[in-house]
Each structure stands twice: as structure tokens, then as C-alpha cells.
Amino acid sequence: MSGATAAHGVPEPLAPSTPHLWDVLPAVVSALGVAAPTQPLLTLAPTRRAVVVLVDGLGEQLLRRRAGHAPFLRTGLDTAYGLVCGYPSTTATSMGSFGTGLPPGAHGLVGYEMLVPTEDRIFNALSWQDGPDARRWQPEPTVFELAERAGVAVTRIGPGFFDGSGLTTAALRGGNFVAAQDLSARVEAALAAVRQSRRALVYLYWGDVDKAGHVHGVDSWEWTAELERVDAALAELVARVPRDTTVLVTADHGMVDVPFDRRIDLADETGLLTGVRHVGGEPRAVQLYTQPGASGDVAAAWQSRLGEDARVVCRADLVAEGAFGPVSDTVLPRIGDVLVNAVSDIAVIDSSRMRPELLRLVGLHGSVTPAEASIPLLVWPARIA
């Protein structure tokens, strides 16, 4: 599997040989005969049509561990690519990487909750409530836009509320959007879309594996049941696409279960907020925006409190390691001054500001462990050229 790890499960700095989620769509459009925005570290056989399915939360380790419940997906594991989703291992960042073909330091979606530097406030990149103008926040063209300009029929399929949302506009704009609610309807929409053009790129999103993991945990029967349902639907999709169609399945991150007695509550440990202006990120990948000159003291206090359960790093050090890829001057101040990454089964919460339903989540992600950061790319090539 690509993406070696160093001590404590922390991925090594980005290396030229490490494929990431941002390589997927550039490789797909290259296979479709479109000039990719970047040189992907993946090579796919030429194809006339492609369907790319992103199963939210389907980490590589989770899939391999439960492969007995996924007989169809298991057939693709032996030839699957092992990718790294990028940092942090969270949906908003991964969607930016997937959609633009760029690392987070370039597309600027650097976390679940990020700082708007010009206004010194935090916003949530998933809901995009009171967020900045999405096209200005992420002005680079998406791979979907580039494919559409090159004459490829592009269709994106997901829940209706995604269409025109801030995150979709920032990360996944381009082509036509088709709203479909349940999984079978999305498979039918994908089949209809790919059949409508001799040169097509179809993207299908499914989020219920992630939901089951968050609500019930990745070791639950509910998570396994959802995997079985997805497996059956993808088997049908692959069996019914035109013979000149390549089908790819990937994910945006993995997940780990975090016991409730392993959660550090900032409402009870207010000393950790000394020198902190804003808390962003998420429970396993906290981003601390500090008062001027306070970063070193804040980092030391958090490392002392969390010990070997977390790696606490100042922004300059993590950027230098390549966690975000090359970081533009515009994106740099969006990243926390101090970054706290869980490397064991812990999380940092704040019961004074987090909604009760978020405090009840069992499965979490965002950090750098292989269980969270490693994702699969399974490929079923076209049966005819």
C-alpha cells in the first residue's frame, strides 16, 4: 500500500511516489483524453466513459477488515491502489482535493472549521453557513469544469441540497447536477447519464457509510449492513454500464471509534485555551488560532496535557513537512497556528459550544493515523476500448 507511515502512525512528508486523492480525477480525465491540470501519480487505461463513485468514510483499512461483507468490492482489492486522502482527513478538505486535483495548500479548504483571516472568525466548511463567497475562496477551476470545456459530458449525482451549496460550488462545480435521494436511484441516474454520451464522466456520491460510522461506530452491525448495501449496488452498477466504461470507487477518509471516556472536554479544561483566539478543525484534528506570540506556549501546554496521545505541531513545522502540499500565501493564514493531531483513541470536544448530536458521535476522523488517512481506489476497467 502506498503512503508509508512514521512513528505513532503519522504519515511521512509528501513524497513524489505517494499517490493521493487529488490524483484520482486528473488520472480519470487523462484516460478520457483530456489534458489534466496536474501530472497525476496514477495511470489508467484509456477509456471512452468513466463513472467515479466516492463512498464517504470508506477507509482502506475498514474495507479490508470487513471485506467478507463486501464480496463484490473484495474482487477489486487485489489490484486496488492504496491512496492517502491528504491532511486533514476530513470531508471538506478531501472534496476540495478530489474536485480540483490539487492539494489543500493550493485549493484552500484546509479543515472542517477554518478561519476567515480577513474577518478573524471561524466558519464551517460543510454547512458553509455565513461562509465566504465560495468561488473567491476557491477560485481554481475544478477538474469537472476542465473536462466539460474539453467536450466531455459531465454529470454529478448526489442529494438535492448539495446543488449550489457552498462546498459544492467551491470544490465540485462543473457539468450537470442530478438530484437523487436513495442509493438505487443514484445508480439508475449514473447509468442513464453515462449512456447519454459517447464521451462521459459521471460522479456519484454516497454518504451513508460515513453516517453509520459516525452515529453507531465502525465496529457496529449498522456500519456493516451499510457496507453490504453499497457493495450490492456497486456490483449492479458495474454489471450494467456500457462495455466501454471504466468504473472507479474511492473514498474521502476512513474513521476510528473513540470511547466517550477518552474525550478531553475544553469546557472542563479551560486552561488549554490560554493564549487561544479561536478553536477550529475538529475533535481529532484541532486547529488552534493563537494570540500573537503565544503559539509556542500553547503548543507546549497542549503537548504536556495530551502526551503520547497526540502530536502537537506549530503551523510552520507541519507546512514544512508537506502535510498540506505547497501552501500559497493566500491559504497560509487559514491554517491554525498550532495543530493537534490525535494518534491514539482520543478526541478533543467542547461541550459548551458543540451541538449535543455532535457530542454523541461514536466514529470520528480528521487526524493522520492510517485508519483515517488511508483510502482505496478500486478500478473496474472498460471491457472494450
Describe this structure in a few short sentences.
This protein has 385 residues and is of the alpha/beta class.
Word description of this protein:
- By secondary structure, the protein is α/β, with parallel strands linked by helices.
- It has 15 helices and 17 strands.
- It is globular and about 60 Å long.
- CATH architectural group of the largest domain: 3-Layer(aba) Sandwich
Strand order in the largest sheet = 2-17-8-1-7-5-6
Number of domains: 2
Query: Which sheet architecture does the biggest sheet show?
Result: 7 strands, mixed
What name does the CATH topology of the largest domain carry? Alkaline Phosphatase, subunit A
| N- to C-terminal distance | 28 Å
Shape: globular
Residue-averaged pLDDT: 95
CATH class of the largest domain: Alpha Beta
- Report the count of strand segments: 17
Helices and strands, with pairings:
Layout: H1 24-31, E1 49-55, H2 60-65, H3 71-77, E2 81-84, H4 91-100, H5 104-107, E3 113-116, E4 121-124, H6 134-137, H7 143-149, E5 153-158, H8 166-171, E6 176-179, H9 183-195, E7 200-206, H10 208-216, H11 221-240, E8 245-250, E9 256-257, E10 263-265, E11 276-282, E12 285-290, H12 295-306, E13 310-314, H13 315-321, E14 338-342, E15 347-349, H14 356-359, E16 363-364, H15 370-373, E17 374-380
Parallel strand pairs: 1-7, 1-8, 5-6, 5-7, 10-15
Antiparallel strand pairs: 2-17, 3-4, 8-17, 9-16, 11-12, 12-14, 13-14
